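Prompt: Have a read of the protein record below and flag anything odd:
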Amino acid sequence: MSKNQYRSNYCIELNDTYINSKVKLAGWIRKKRDHGNIIFIDLKDHTGVVQCTINIDNKNFEGIDNLSLESVVSIEGNVIARPTGSINEELASGKIEIEISKLKILSKAEILPFVMHQNDLGEELRLKYRFLDLRRDEMQSRLKLRFEVIKMIRGIMEDKGFMEVQTPILTSSSPEGARDYVVPSRLNPGKFYALPQAPQQFKQLLMVSGVNKYYQIAPCFRDEDTRADRAPGAFYQLDMEMAFSTQEEIFEILEDLMHKVFTKFRPEMKISNTPFIRIPYKESILKYGTDKPDLRINTHYHDLTHLFLQDCPKIFESVINNKDNKGKILALPIKGLSKQTRKFFDKMQKLAQDNGAVGLGYILFEPEKRGPLAKLLSEEVCNAIREKADGAFLVADTEENLKMYMNPILQQVAIEMDLIEKQTYKFCWITDYPMYEKNDGKWEFSHNPFSMPQGEMDALSLDPSEIKAYQYDLVCNGIELTSGAIRNHRLDVMYKAFEIAGYAKEDVEKEFGAMLNAFKYGAPPHGGAAPGIDRMIMLLADTENIREVIPFPLNQQGQDLMMDAPCEISDKHLKELNIKLDKS
């Protein structure tokens, strides 16, 4: 390395080949142990740790003795072999130590707000002192993982012919999706920019502009509530779009990328082979109660409604006779269910009711037929269940109500009975999303309003409930990694699609004028997707909280405790922006 006034080497470089060499290191004092006539120091830099010693006869001894942990120092000394009994095989430098001859204090640390190796720190404390939290080995590892993953993604995308283009951060507000973060314009009083929820319109405009394959590691901003796999404020996604593309081509590109990235960074894990499983949306809802199924759980719901049409117990009659023909009776067969205790079944009953179910029935077959439904179900139903497992839960309700509690039941059963396959990443595509859904009696877009309906203009003459879109999600272990679609590039189809959702032509032109204007001058068929970088890192880092892999996240209340944001601004600043606050 080039000559540096603070160091000649990094900690990770030093091993027994350096014995009898003179070296210079710089870093933080992570640990300190006073043995009377000698002080042991663990000096840490961004690469690793080296043990250093200083004797009482060294003029710097007293200064080090009084120096607090995490102070920054530069030391010089000789590399010597550790005594046989103190060799640390877990460290790259575990066979040597540095006998300090010179020491320079570069920055003295105050008393720390927490112990650096403590594992049970509260999140609020960690976020307030995030700069300290990030020094910890675990967090340094996640920062490095994030960097390496993004670096690899860039290489893969560029090898596939994609060009990176940066899109604007200040743009106009969108009527679709989550709430916008808005920014007042000083030069245009009374008007506001919005931070982009995604570069959706811009990447489609790039397709019209003649860009063939676009990508970007894009920051996105959504003012939405936090949860374990979603952080408030900003997040990053691999935004991509292709001209003249089909759904299958996009699948192939992302499958190859995901398989390569996950294989590279978690080689010990079992990873889905390509092509990934495709599951139509309606099938996913009926089998798992969600469009984010965790395929590590090797069981799912089975529709037994048809077996109840001729021989229906009274408790299920209201479901079978549902006037909209949307009642379903589903069985969740589970191997080993007969071995569970009454306490387990009571717990599952409460879980189901807490999530909106009237109740949760079950039947068991070992050692004999038993359970609340044992005397109510026909032999035909019992045989259908017995073929799959020694017991099953049964749920009966409208399709809409079933979605509220099917997946919570499945997830909790899998946790309680240890049914989740370990050491594996299970990917699947959810396809054929409905174009529309009904809300308060009105049709709304169920996914992305810019998606192409399957069948284009011909499809829009159907009942809205029957229209499917070229929309898709990529799911891994129950976590949505990406949403995407083949876009609607035809103005006539777009106006009609928005009309069904209650938008007049002039409303569409007002809200999406730039894109519609561009489409008048020749728009190629195009499509894309946007995998979430933070969620990918969360899975690769094997953590359940997305804030663990974001360098400087907001807390659950959308606050940056370290930078004290959001904060009030001065009256002078408000006046410049032509803003008056009403705090009543």
